[in-house]
Write a structure and sequence with these properties.
With about 120 residues, the protein is of the alpha+beta class. About 20% of the residues lie in helices and about 20% in strands. The N and C termini lie far apart (about 35 Å).
């Protein structure tokens, strides 16, 4: 029961933390609990985010970023992720994000941590 209460408190804190979302071509601050599937979010360097994301672009020329997954699998080493070559330029800067039109198809949620 105690562990469940601690987890509930932790979940509430994460759900109430803030994130920047692109809403009607304007970056707006929202709570994580309000973020919908398919919304474009902006994650800054060294910023924690409690959700699965599809990396569209990064500040690095080849679309590389490093993600720590210790809350998921206990590993503290950084995992290298890449933005897809077809999206990394379309979403490179704020003006590009406002103009980009894309459709993404992906599988639904599943319990497998290392499969997507």
């Amino acid at each position: 029961l105690y562990e469940d209460l601690k987890r509930m408190k932790s979940d509430a804190e994460e759900n109430n933390s803030k994130v920047e979302c692109l809403v009607e071509n304007v970056w707006k601050t929202k709570r994580w609990a309000e973020v919908l599937v398919g919304e474009i979010i902006r994650v800054n360097r060294d910023e924690y985010f409690p959700a699965d994301v599809l990396v569209l672009s990064t500040s690095e020329p080849k679309g590389v970023c490093y993600i720590e997954t210790k809350n998921l699998d206990g590993e503290t080493n950084l995992k290298q992720k890449h933005a897809h070559k077809d999206t990394r330029d379309d979403f490179k800067d704020e003006n590009a994000c406002h103009k980009a039109e894309s459709i993404f198809e992906y599988e639904g949620p599943n319990p497998y941590l290392y499969q997507f």
